[in-house]
Design a protein that fits this description.
Helix content is 41%, strand content 18%. By secondary structure, it is α/β, with parallel strands linked by helices. The protein has two domains: 109 residues, 2-Layer Sandwich (Nucleotidyltransferase, domain 5); 173 residues, Nucleotidyltransferase, domain 5 (2-Layer Sandwich), CATH 3.30.420. It has a five-stranded mixed β-sheet with strand order 3-2-1-4-7, with helices on both faces. Strand 1 and strand 2 form a beta hairpin. The model has no long low-confidence stretch (mean pLDDT 95).
């Protein structure tokens, strides 16, 4: 199959032409206009046309188009419902717009679901029942059970970042308290460190950030931990404990063959997955943990591959009727 993938991000749009084996022939990125879906997608259609020609294909040779987008979204209506980073995209019928341009089948899923499909089709745990966890600004999941994507009744099946770990925990951006994302989402974690520094906490994290609180991120925290900074080590201890708690819940609920983790785990090295795995037995049965691979993703270009995987899954679902 020849497939067109469109990965919609808050800052960039990534387009690619690939096939069912996950081979990307051509790809290109350009900035997203957060205030105008119409303007951005018009440009996306132009770039897609150029890529199709560059790949030596015609539009009629494209078997399907996959769109990976931020959530919350509606896969049936193929639209982003509402997202804080793309104010001008609310309820815009992204799928209809692209289908009108190319007259090819268009399928749309949220980015976490797309990444889960990409891991299932192309990753190190290809073909296994797995959970892919986005681990960056926020936390979401793409869940594959019995070979099928678990999207839920209205596409909220993978919103695991908003599982409540402690009712008395910090306020989350979703409005609840004590969510997994409130503790372990990259932005929330960094915001908590900045707030503590503003209240007078002494830590070398600020020095690692060149004295600028705005530049504090996970890289600076990890550097401080490796230097033995007491505050950073204590903060990281809570982070890892909450990670283990949440992953333990997923192990108990889904009994997957693999849990694959994104950005923070990829860059976390020995401070992340090994430390977390040591604590999981407090939250999940050993028999579930023993049969589950827990590792960082090894896929490059996962955004592009997610969109391609969404197209493949859409075609497969059509064939099943």
């Amino acid at each position: 199959m020849n497939l067109l993938g469109i990965d919609i991000g808050g800052t960039k749009i990534a387009l690619s032409i690939g096939n069912e084996r996950g081979e990307l022939f051509v790809d290109q990125r350009f900035p997203t206009d957060p205030g105008s879906a119409q303007k951005t997608l018009t440009r996306a259609a132009e770039v897609a046309g150029e890529l199709i020609a560059k790949a030596g294909l015609t539009v009629n040779q494209i078997d399907a188009i996959g769109i990976s987008s931020p959530g919350p979204m509606c896969s049936k209506r193929r639209m982003i419902l509402q997202t804080p980073n793309l104010k001008g995209w609310d309820h815009f019928k992204v799928g209809d717009f692209i289908e009108d341009k190319f007259k090819r089948p268009v399928f749309m899923q949220n980015d976490a679901n797309g990444a889960g499909l990409a891991e299932y089709m192309f990753g190190a745990c290809k073909g296994k029942d797995l959970i892919y966890l986005t681990m960056s600004t926020g936390i979401g999941a793409g869940i594959i059970a019995n070979g099928q994507l678990v999207a839920g009744t209205n596409d909220l099946g993978g919103e695991v970042g908003h599982m409540t770990l402690d009712l008395n925990g910090p306020l989350c951006g979703c409005g609840k308290t004590g969510c997994w994302e409130a503790y372990c989402g990259g932005k929330n974690f960094a915001d908590q460190v900045r707030a503590d520094i503003a209240c007078g906490v002494q830590t070398s994290i600020l020095k690692e950030a060149g004295g600028d609180p705005a530049k504090i991120g996970m890289q600076e925290v990890r550097a401080a931990i490796r230097a033995g900074d007491a505050y950073a080590c204590k903060k990281w201890d809570v982070f890892i404990e909450k990670m283990a708690h949440a992953v333990g819940i997923l192990l108990q609920a889904f009994n997957p063959e693999a849990i694959i983790m994104g950005t923070l785990a990829i860059h976390g090295g020995d401070l992340f997955i090994p430390q977390m795995r040591d604590r999981i037995p407090k939250y999940a049965w050993k028999s579930s943990l023993d049969v589950c691979r827990i590792e960082a993703s090894v896929l490059n270009n996962i955004g592009e591959l997610s969109a391609i995987a969404i197209a493949i899954d859409g075609v497969c679902q059509l064939k099943k009727g």
